[in-house]
Design goal:
This protein is mainly alpha-helical and 485 residues long. Helix content is 74%, strand content 0%. The protein is built from 18 helices and no strands. Helix 10 runs antiparallel to helix 18 and helix 17 runs antiparallel to helix 18. It is globular and about 55 Å long. The chain starts with 42 loop residues before the first helix and ends with a helix.
Length: 485
Amino acid sequence: MSALTPPTPAPGSPPTPAPGSPPAAPGTTGALPEQQHAPGGRPGVALLAALLGFLIITVDVSGVNIALPAIRSSLHGGMAGLQWVVDAYTLMFAALMLSAGAFADRAGARRAYALGVALFTVASLACALAPGIGTLIAARVVQGSAAAAVMPASLALIRQTYDDPGRRARAIALWSVGGSLAMAIGPVLGGALTETVGWRAVFLLNLPVGALILGLLARVPVSARRRVPFDPAGQATAVLALAALAYAVIEGGHAGRLTGSCAVALGIALLAALTFRTAEARHPAPMVPLEMFRQREVVVTLSVGFAVNAAYYGTIFLLGLYYQQLRGMSGTAAGLMFVPTAAVITAVNVLSPRLADRYGRRPVIVWGQALLALAMAALLVLGPDTPAWLVLVLLLPFGISAVTVPALTALLMDSVPGHRAGTASGLLNAMRQTGGALAVALFGTLLAGPGDGDFSVSGLHLSLAVAAALLCATTLLARLLLPRD
């Protein structure tokens, strides 16, 4: 799930194979005998259930961004607290995405999806009832963990329901477009609810939707279960490394110096990363096979995915605060400012495969990134009195640059063996989420500066410049290392 650009499943393969696991032997399904599923069933019901799950975990990202100023005012949390409200969700989503596919296969798509939706719904209630910023952040951790289970299980549910490849492709296309639309309506819905009812309503909205999904799942056939190995050491060290790094960036930035706790966090992040590498090298079925990184196409696509999402997530975080804290817009007005860009991104996602077919994936990836870097640079003119129409015009290149992600995903899928498609897809989505989480950590720090102060224009400009520089670096990387089509 990227900002305004939904994750793309592995084309031509089941969306959620167990990361690192070999394919089933010919003539076998790998399913446990007592849990064979009935293919087909009620495809419309299953698709609706899958789509609604994708909607709520996506709206929860974009809608909460608009609610951040109200959360800060209500719970008296500083900028660091707001960063953790976003990153607690995104970091868990990113880290657990690596093994969520294996969980969906082992538990069965319907059961895994139901568990994920139920946990997400309960966590949403905890968010809505949170008496303080610390409680809200803890509930967001649980929400992000549940969302990581919902994402691949929703795709697996579609995969099991639609046996015909053509109908399945159309169903997945609807699922993807639904994610884009959710990112478009999320800011508007979040702003309107925050302004009229209060920020807690953004989370309460998930309760009836979650109940509806669980009711629909009762009419969906039982899913097959597979014997899939887990990689607990790799998963634990991945979570620890990302969380420790985010802590060091957020807390160290607001302190204005490298404090003792930040130094310890950086040490833990480094140690966890090294342990992760060792665990993956020794595990018989690692969730991240290290040999994948020997291919330059894999390294480049993961790097580009990280940079693109850092720009998307980071900019949405910045603009949500810019519209309300610096320009004094209402929550609804701030949400509406995102709609034109989201509409452009939805259209571009549809056109991207055609452009890649005509001009090649490499040019689309290179020029898409270059356009996004220029969009970041153009936003450097933003100030308290910048006309709203000019802001919308400056954001158009930001939307058009979304052409990069579908071409990037297709290139990665073609660069790995078929039985690694699910692993590669999960790894790319995890890297994209990580890029967004670390961007929020860094940009929020730059916005507030030492002492956790108020929104600053200089911090906004510095954040945009960092995003542009990162994109320039990955554009050059793609230009030099990706093979010509």
